[in-house]
Amino acid sequence: MASVINKLILTCVGMALAGHAMAAQFSLTDSAGQPLSTVMVTRVLAQKPVLSLSDDGYPAHGVSNQAAVENTRFSDASGKLAFPETDAVYDYRFRKPGFKDQHLRSVDLTDNTEVTMVRELDPRMLAEQKPSNVWLSQLDIGGGKKLREHFALNCAFCHQQASPFMRVERSADEWLTVIDRMGGYGARIAGDLGEPLAEGLAAGYQRLNANFTTLPEPRSWDAELSGAQYTEWPIGDGFSQMHDFILHPNGMVYVGDNLQDRIYEVNPDTGVYTVYKVPHEAEDKLGGFLGNRFKAYGKINNYLGVHSFAVSPKDGHIFSTPSMQRALLEFDPVTKTFTRHEMKRGFYPHTIRTDDQDRVWFTLALSSQVAMWDRQKKVFTYFDIPARNVKEWLTIKLLPLIFWLDPETRPMPSVDRESSGLPMPYGIDVAPDGRVWFARLYANDFGYIDPETGDVTVVDAEVTGPRRLRVDANNRVWMVSFQTGLLVMYDPASKELTEYALPVLSEFPYALNVDRARGAVWVNGNQSDTIMRFDMAAETWQVYPMPRRRTFTRDIEIAEDGSVYTTNSHFPSWQIEDAQPTLIHIQPYSQ
C-alpha cells in the first residue's frame, strides 16, 4: 500500500511540474557580440519536487522520492546550445571561467534566447572562480617536498584543500586544533610534523590570500565539450557523505551514505530514488569499533559506515563493506533485505570486488589484510600482507587488544613519517587472469594474491600513495599516485612502471576506473572540480569540469555505452556549492 501511495505522490508531483512543452535553445555571445563556446549551461527545476523526509530529515526506509534532476550542456564553437523539449519548467545558470554567472528563468526564454556573457573584471572575483587546485599550486607551507606530500596524504583525502573554507586565515595554534580534530577523523600527521605543518599553513595561507592576483590560470575547457551531456540527481543533504556507489545490471545505481548508514537506489531513467536504512545490531555503537569520531559533526548515524560496493555475477546481490564493523554486508535488491556476515578477524573493511567464481574480495585497511568471502562454503579466508618491519608486525598483532579497550581511553600507537604499523591496504581489483591485486596507501607499494595457492606477493616497485587500483583487459595494473598527482601503470609481464602526468596542475587524484572495452582510464580529480579520461593507445586526455564547485569524487562506474557515473562526496558536504551532494552521470563527447 505504501508503494502505491508513493507512486501516486510522484505522479502528482510530475503533474504539478508540467507546463507547456518547449525546447530551450540558446545563442551565447560575449559583450562584443562574438559567439562564445564552452559556456556551461545548467538547468534546474524551477519548482522542486516535495520530498518525504520523515526520518531525521531523510526519507524513511523503503520510501521513494522524485529527485530534482539537473542537466548540463556546453555551447559549441558558434555559441549554440539546445536542450530537448520538455514539459517541466526550469531555471538556467550560465557559467564560463573569466565571466560572470548569468541566470534566466523559463518565462524569460524565447524561441532562440540570446544570452550575453559579461566579463568579470574584479580581480578578487576572478580568483574566487578558480578551482581549489589552482590555489593549492601556489600554497607554500615550507618544509620541502616531503612535508607537502605528508600534508597531501593526510589532509586532502576527504575535502578540497585551499578551497574558500580552508584558506581562511588561522593562527598556528588554531591550525594545531584543526590537525588534532582531523586526527580523530583518520588523518595521521607524524608527531614531529604537527607544529611545522601548523606554522606552515598559517604563514602559507596568509601569503596566498595576499597574492591572489598571481594565481595561474586553470586549464581551459575543451572545445569538444559541446558534445558532452551531464545529469545530476541531488540526494542526501549537507550532513551526508555519498562515499561509494555501484551501477547494477538491473539499471539502478546504488549509492551509500557513509555517515548516515543509508543506501539510495536511484533510477537514472526517471530520477526516482528509494532509500534503504542499513540495520544495526542493538549492541552496536555509533562509530563501531572506532568509537564516535564524529560526535562534534552534528547529525550522524554511522553505526556501520557504509563504504564500498560490489555486485555478485551470479545473483546480483550487492556486497558492501561496513568499515566500522567486523562484518560484510549483503543486500538483495529484489527482496530489499540485508544479511550481515560477521568476521572473527580483521579491522576496517574497505574496498571490495567480486570474481568470476562469485567470491567476494576486500581489503582490511587497519589490520593489513585481504579477506575473501566464499559464498558457497560461507567462510572467510584471510591473507596477511607482510609487515614492513618489527614495529609494524607488533602493532598489527596488538590491534585486537587496542580495539577491545574503551575508545575514549584506549592508547594509540605513535605516528611516524613512514606510518609504521599502518601500511593500509586500500584498493583492490581482480585481473582477467584471476590475480587479486591490492595497493597499500601508506606503505607506497602494491602486490597480488594467487587465489589458487594463497601466496601473497609484494611487488618490488614504489608508487607514492597508491589508493584505488584497477586492472585492464591486458592484466596491466593502473593506479593513482595520490601525493604526486600521477597516473601510474604497472605491466606484470615486463615488470615496468610507467608514469603519466595529469592534465591539470596540483591535483591529488583519489581513484580511477578502467574501461576495459575501450582502453581508457577515468581518473577522479577531486581538487580541480574535474574527472579525466585517459586514452591508453593515444596517451591523450579529456577533462570534464563539474557543474558544482567544490566537487570531490571518490570512485567512477562505467556503463556499457561508455558513459560514466560518479558522486560528489565532499566531506563535509555542506562545503559543496549549494551544500548539495549529487549522483552524476556524464556522457562523454567522444570515446
The CATH architecture of the domain at 2-127: Sandwich
Percent of residues in helices comes to 10-25%
Q: Indicate the overall shape.
A: globular
Low-confidence stretches: 1-19
Give the overall pLDDT as a whole number. 94
Report the portion of residues in β strands: 25-35%
Q: In terms of structural class, how would the helical and strand content be classed?
A: alpha+beta
End-to-end separation: 45 Å
Number of helices: 7
CATH class call of the domain at 2-127 = Mainly Beta
DSSP summary, beta strand count: 36
Q: How large, in whole angstroms, is the Cα Rg? A: 24 Å
**How can the largest sheet be summarized?**
8 strands, antiparallel
Question: What's the CATH superfamily of the domain at 2-127, by name?
Answer: Carboxypeptidase-like, regulatory domain
Query: CATH topology of the domain at 2-127, anyone?
Result: Immunoglobulin-like
Q: How is the largest sheet built, in terms of strand order? A: 7-6-2-4-9-36-35-34
How is this structure best described in words?
The strands form eight sheets. The chain has an eight-stranded antiparallel sheet, with no helix packed on it. Strands 3-13-12-11-10 form a five-stranded antiparallel sheet. The chain is 15% helix and 34% strand. By secondary structure, the protein is α+β, with helices and mostly antiparallel strands. It contains seven helices and 36 strands. Among the domains are: 2-127, Sandwich (Immunoglobulin-like); 139-210, Cytochrome Bc1 Complex, Chain D, domain 2 (Orthogonal Bundle), CATH 1.10.760; 239-342, Neuraminidase. The protein is globular. Keywords: Signal.
